[in-house]
Design a protein that fits this description.
single chain; 283 residues; alpha+beta; 7-stranded antiparallel β-sheet; 5-stranded mixed β-sheet; 12 strands
């Protein structure tokens, strides 16, 4: 005998009727809801992506307006960095207007009380001479082969017929830094141009002066910096901070290649176009 309770006759008839009942098709509720929401959106309301774009443009405009204010712009210190070399631009200080001549006293006017002359504006000083006057005075002179064992640098093949460097140095600033020097033929004390190769562990900083020009360029299609004018070059020492440095009076190109940061330095005769050709000739 089965333990299942007997089926109620009414329930059985309802099951049979439900099986024969024709249900209407399910309406597209989600589609209708989306259409109704779109129709009810207030006019002038933009999609979320456009609203975000408008907000970004508004922020950019606000920043440009802030930069137009001398007091705000004077407090900004721009930093540019290519690989292991950072360029620090000077702050822009608004000029203090020259004092006007005091009015000539008349019998009906009391002489004005003497006032102090406004102090001249504070300027970022032009780099001064450092203990290392020339790249030829660097420590760590070595051979080309020994230097390449520590720093896997490449050598320029431009200008045509260029010879290997005349002097080679390797220094340690948290990581090895190679300095290659080409001399003016027949003058062993005059540098034609020099090439630094910095590993990723090393770090150098350039303190630009008021007359220093920094221009973005490209080497092999990659970002680079062209620095023209007097500035101070400092290498970072982990124990003492920024220490060894020297004044640079010529022109410099900074770029990265194969994991190294290169710094090509020449005198005023070295043009940006020539420097880029030298950089792109490294083999």
């Amino acid at each position: 005998m089965s333990d299942r309770p007997p089926t109620d006759p009414l329930e059985e008839r309802l099951r049979e009727a439900g099986a024969r009942f024709e249900y209407p098709p399910t309406p597209a509720i989600a589609r209708d809801v989306r259409r109704r929401l779109a129709a009810e959106r207030p006019r002038g309301t933009l999609p979320l992506s456009l609203r975000r774009l408008q907000a970004a443009v508004a922020i950019a405009c606000a920043l440009l307006l802030l930069l137009a204010v001398p007091e705000v712009r004077a407090g900004i210190r721009a930093l540019l960095r290519i690989g292991s070399v950072q360029v620090v631009l000077p702050t822009s200080t608004p000029l203090v207007p020259a004092p006007t001549a005091p009015p000539v006293p008349t019998p009906t006017m009391r002489p004005a009380q003497p006032t102090s002359t406004p102090a001249p504006p504070t300027r970022t000083p032009v780099p001064t001479a450092t203990p290392i006057p020339s790249v030829l005075d660097l420590a760590g002179e070595t051979t080309l082969d020994a230097a390449r064992r520590r720093v896997p640098f490449k050598l320029p093949t431009y200008p045509p017929g260029i010879s290997p460097p005349d002097r080679v140095f390797v220094q340690d600033f948290g990581g090895p830094v190679a300095a290659l020097v080409w001399l003016v033929p027949g003058n062993p004390s005059q540098v034609r141009f020099s090439l630094h190769a910095l590993t990723s562990e090393s770090f150098a900083q350039k303190m630009a002066g008021q007359n220093t020009v920094v221009k973005p360029v490209t080497v092999h299609g990659q970002p680079a910096l062209w620095v023209r004018g007097p500035h101070l070059l400092e290498f970072y020492q982990h124990r003492t901070g920024f220490g060894e440095g020297r004044e640079v009076l010529g022109n410099v190109l900074i770029w990265t290649q194969d994991g190294l940061t290169y710094r090509l330095e020449g005198d005023d005769a070295l043009t940006m176009e020539q420097a880029v050709k030298i950089a792109e000739s490294l083999r």
